[in-house]
Amino acid sequence: MGHTLRHQSASVAGVCLMTLLASSCLSGLMTQAAKAQTASASTGATRHFTIAAQPLRTALHQYLEQSGVQVAYPTAAAGNVRAAAVTGNLTPQEALSRLLAGTGLTWRATGPNSVTLAKSAANITLGPIRVGGTVTHQNPTGPGVGYVATTTMSGTKTDTPITEIPNSIYVVTKQLMQDQQPQNVVEALRYTPGVYSESLGNYSNGSGLDGTNSGIKQRGFSTTSFVDGLALNSGSAGETAFIDRIEAVNGPASVMYGQTNPGGMIGISLKKPTDVPLHQVSLGFGSWGRYEATADVSDKITKSGNLRYRVAAMGVTSGTQVDHIDYHRVGVLPSLTWDIDPKTSLTLLGMYMYTPGNGTNYLQYPTCGTLIQDANCRRIPRNTFTGYKSWNEQGSKEAMFEYMFKHDFNKYISFSQTFRYENSHSEQNDVYSRIGITNSEVGVRPWSINSRSTTIGLDSRIYGKFSTGFLKHTWIVGSDFRQLEYMQNAFYDYTQTYTQNLYNPTMNTPVCVNIHSAACEVYGSTGPYNYFQEGVYFQDQIKWKGLSVLLGGREDWVNYNSNRYSVNNDNAAHTITKSSLVDAPEPQHAFTWRAGLIYNTRFGLAPYFSYSTSFVPQAGSTDYLGKPFSPLTGKQMEAGLKYKVPNKDILLTASAFRIDEDHYLISDLEHSGFSSDVGKVRSQGFEVSANTNVTKDLRLVASYTYTDIRFAKTNQTAQRVDVYGNSYGNAVSETGKVVPQMPRNMFSVFADYTVPTSFAKGLGINLGMRYVGSTYVDNVESFKTPSYILFDIGAHYDFGQAIPVLKGLKGQLAVSNLTNKYYVTSCDTSFCYTGQGRRLYGNLTYNW
Fold this sequence. Notes:
By secondary structure, the chain is mainly β. The chain is built from six helices and 52 strands.
C-alpha cells in the first residue's frame, strides 16, 4: 500500500545574499632543475577527451579526470590563461599539447604519470607550482578526485588542505558514492571512520536524514548535519542525487558551528553550477520494486561563462523490505551562479521535494525472534509489518531557498555570507512497538503526528590573509544565527490495548485518535516550539614553514520556549491544559574554544595534536519533576598522523582521542517518557584510514575504528536482565559500564578496479566488506547483540570504450549485503532493530 499526504501545504519564502568559496591555496612547493630533459608523459592508449574552452585551471582539472596524468604548473603564469577546446580520441600527450595551444606554455614529463608546465621560451620551471596528485587546487566543497579529497571548508570554514588541520576529517567523494550507489546519506557513510551510521537498522529505509540524523553516531555520540555550513532541519539534503560530497568532522566542532555534540558533525555540500558543461541523465531499478530517474544538467548562460546554471532532479518509487511501507519522492534542485566581477560572486539555490511515502519503519521487533532464535522464538521475517495497513500513512513536503555570496575587498580581506530558508510539512499515521506480550505477540500504540517547521539560518564572516614577520595568518571572524519555529500536534490512542501477531498480523484494525469523539481515549500534546541560537566566532591559522597552529573561540546564546498544551480526552471528558513540564527555561550561553598544531614534513608526514570543547543546550528536555537539564558540555584531546604521499593521490590518517561529556542523558527507567542526567561519559579510542587512487584504474578506501565509550561518573544504578527480559540480582552501579548501542570495533574496506585490457575494455568491478562489532543492550552490560560482517559487490561498464557510437553510456550494478545475512544492528532489553537484507540496484547513465 502506498503512503499518501492528505493535507498538502508547503511554502517557500526568499531572502538574499550568500557564502564563501575561499581563495585557492597551494598544496605544495617544488623547483625543478633546468637540465631536466623532455620525455614522453603517460604513454598510454588513446582515450576520448571532451574538454571545453575555459580557464586553464579548470581545464587542467578535466584533463586529470580524463587522462589520469598529474600536472604541476606555475601559479602566476596560469592565472588568467584560457585553454583551447579539446575533443576526440587522442593520447594524453596529444590532448595536453592541444589544450596548451596558444597559452605560451609547454609541458615536460617529470614521471610516468606526471608533467610540469613551463613557459615555451624557456625549458625551466617557474616559481611556486601546484603539485601533489591533483591537477589544480581542488574545490573544497566539490566532488573530489576519485576517492581522495585534499581540501575542505568544513574543518575551518576556510579553504584549507586537510593535512593542515589538526583533527580528523573524512570525505565521502562523489566518485565513491557513484561506485557504491547508496540510496541515502545514511548508507553513504557506511565506510566512514568513527561513524556508526545504521544503528537503527532499516529504520530510515531510504528516506535519507533530517537534522536529528536518527541512528548516526560519531565516536559514540549522536550527531548533527550541516548543509553548506548551516544546520539542517529538514530532508532537503537527504538525497544523494543532490549532493557533491559528504564530510565527517570527527570531534567537537562547536567553535565553527555552535551546538554540536563532541563526537562531531556531518557536512554536506549541495550541487552547484560547474565551470564546464555537464549533461547527465540516468534510469535505475532495484530490489522491492524500486524505479528511479535522475537528471543533472549544468551549463553557461552567457558566452563568457560568468553566469552559469545547474538543475538536478530526481523521482523514485519503491517498496522497502518491510511490507506496506513504501518510499515515493520527487524533487528538484535548481541553482544559479553569477560571477558579478573578478572579485564578487553570487550563487542562488532552490529546492522542492514532495515525499508522499517516506519509507520510515517505526517498528521494532522483540528480542525473542531476532536476537534469540530457538524453538520458542522463531525468527521474525524482516518483511513483517506489525502496523495497520488501513492506518499507515506518511508523507512530507519540503522547500528551501539558499544564497551564497562572496566579495574580495583586497588580498587581505574578503567577505562571505550564506543564508537559508526552509519550510517543511509532514503528516504521519503509524504505530510503534510498545511491549512484548508473548513469544508471538507484541503490543503496539497507534499515533498521529502533524507537524510544520520553518527554519532561517544565516552565517556571515570576514576573513583573509596577512603576515607578521615570518608568520603567515589565515584569519576569520564571523557570526551566525538560526531560528526554528515548529508546530506539532501529536495524539496517541489509549482507547484499548492493541496487539499484533508477529507471524500473522492483522492488517485493518480500526484506530481511534479523534480528540472530539466520546468513543476515543486520546492523549497527546499540541502547540508551538520556538528556538533561537546566535553565535560569534573567531579563528586564526598561523603558519611558519611546515608548522601550522590553529586557535579559535566562540560565544553562543540560545533561547527557546514552548507553549505546548497537553491533551487528555478520557472517554468524552475532553480537556486541554497547558503543560507545566515544557515551560521555557532561562536562556543558555557558553564559550567554546579549540587549539591545535600540525607539522607538515617535506616528505608528506604530518603529526598533530589538538584540544577542543563543545556545547549543546538540552532544549525542551526536563526530568519528571519538570526541571530543565543543564547543557551538554564536552572536551576532547586528539593526537594523530596524516600522510599525503608526495605526487600521489594517497591519503593515510591515524588518530587517537579522548572525549569527556558532562550531563549525558539516558531514559528514566522509573518514569516513562522522561530522561535522567547520568553525569559524565567518556569516549576514547583510535581510528586509522586510507583514501587512495592507487592508479587511474584502482581506487580503495579502508578504515578501522576502536571506540570505548563508558559512563565515567554517575549515581545511577540498575538491575541486570537476562535475554528474556527477566531481572536478576541486586541493582549495580552504572559507573564504568559501557554505553549501549555503540560497537567497540568497526572495520571496512572497499575497492574499485577498472580492467585495463582490450578483452574487457570499459569493465570495472568493486568489492566491499563491513565488520561491526557487538554492542551492549543496556546501561549495566546485561547482554550483547552479536557482531556481523557484510559484503557488498558491484560492477560498471562503459559502453563507449568498446562501441564508439555509444560514447557516454554507462551501466552500473551494486549489491549490498550480498549473502542476505539476517542481523540486528542494536537492541535494548526488549526490542531490536533488524538490518537491511540483500539489496540490488542498477542504472543506466548517459553523459553528453
